Amino acid sequence: MREYAIATIPADGIGPEVIAAGTQVLESLQKRLSDVKFHFKNFDWGSDYYKKHGVMMPADGLATLKKFDAIYFGAVGAPDVPDHVTLWGLRLPICQGFDQYANVRPTKILPGITSPLRNVGPGDLDWVIVRENSEGEYSGHGGRAHRGMPEEVGTEVAIFTRIGVTRIMRYAFRLAQSRPRRLLTVVTKSNAQRYGMVMWDEIAAEVAVEFPDVTWDKMLVDAMTVRMTLKPQSLDTIVATNLHADILSDLAGALAGSLGVAPTANIDPERRFPSMFEPIHGSAFDITGKGIANPVATFWTAAQMLDHLGEAEAAARLMRAVERVTGAGILTPDVGGKATTKEVTAAVIDAIHSSN
Ligand code: NAI
Ligand code: MG
Questions:
Q1: Of 131, 158, 173, 254, which residue is the least packed, with the fewest Cβ within 10 Å?
Q2: Is 350 one of the catalytic residues?
């Protein structure tokens, strides 16, 4: 029996709805496979916790999480708490504290889901975006002076280090190498940003030498939005900075049909710490409590978690079940269907049990 301790942090908005669905699906997978066991422990951290205790998680939160094999995360954000408080209070401290420097965001058009792009169907758009997740524009370096005065200044400094850029490039080249097309696009903005981004390009070229079997090219981030929209077939693996990849992956999610299907993994490739798996979307106040949140992103990120834990077969089984359900048209309203979160979840559980 292979056993895994998984910390669940559903947090805010639709987070608890989709994490409950994901946990049920993982439990059914455990029943089906009989040689894996998940031990879930739930943490009630997030905006409600903040309103009671003045912090999003306890001071020893990271020490508690460190003992787990993986973290399964919902979403943070509440209408009545500033977004920078919720984000910097929970999600970013986990990503940074556990040095989860590779943020891996697969996107493809699942069967039964329609892309807003005309003439683009399953197979035409199958990407993995690798986002640098520890530095760059979100390093937290900056400050404000002369608050409220006419001469007030605010700085937000992007930090690029040779170590940080080299390790994310190696991760991206290795991932590209593991995919059938062995194709990597390095996103940059080295025409306008002359220091960090030029170093990013130079390091990409250095690391590329280690991977002679990977074909790679460079794109400026603005032109990249055009290529993603007009020539989605020309892309496979993509690597970009923290900010650039944040924006590009929302676009990728939308082009693949909905944010509700887009997953993400925050990985510590060296496995010193637990990695964290979550849907890309936020807490979606507009649909919270309505029972119609799309759980597919949360299922897909569970498959990423299984892959990371070395359970590739279970991961593949889960994705086959999800694709069977989307292919059968059992879809939530965000992707044009009428099903509820519970109906999609039940259908995926059925598919897990009825497949061989
Ligand atoms: P959002 O992702 O919560 O929602 C954007 C739109 O997509 C909404 O119309 C929502 O209904 C829809 N949507 C999102 N997930 C869906 C799902 N699973 N099924 C169906 N429809 C779905 O982004 P928004 O509105 O910008 O932010 C809301 C809150 O979430 C804010 O407080 C924000 O800071 C936070 N947020 C948190 C993130 C995280 O925890 N990783 C990521 C993005 C936003
Ligand atoms: Mg984002």
A1: 254
A2: no
- Cα of 81 vs centre of ligand 2, distance in Å, is 18
Q: How far is the CA of 14 from the centre of ligand 1 (A)?
A: 9
| Predicted TM-score of the model (pTM) | 0.94
Each as own residue / partner, the long-range contacts of residues 336-344 (CB below 8 Å, 24 or more positions apart, any chain) are: 336/113, 336/114, 340/291, 340/292, 341/17, 341/18, 341/21, 341/291, 341/292, 341/293, 341/294, 341/295, 342/21, 342/291, 344/21, 344/294, 344/295, 344/296
Which domains does the chain show, CATH number per domain?
Answer: 1-100+262-356 (3.40.718.10), 115-256 (3.40.718.10)
Nearest by Cα to 116 from 251, 278, 217: 251
Residue 260, ligand 1, Cβ within 6 A:
yes
Evaluate: CB of 281 within 6 angstroms of ligand 1.
yes
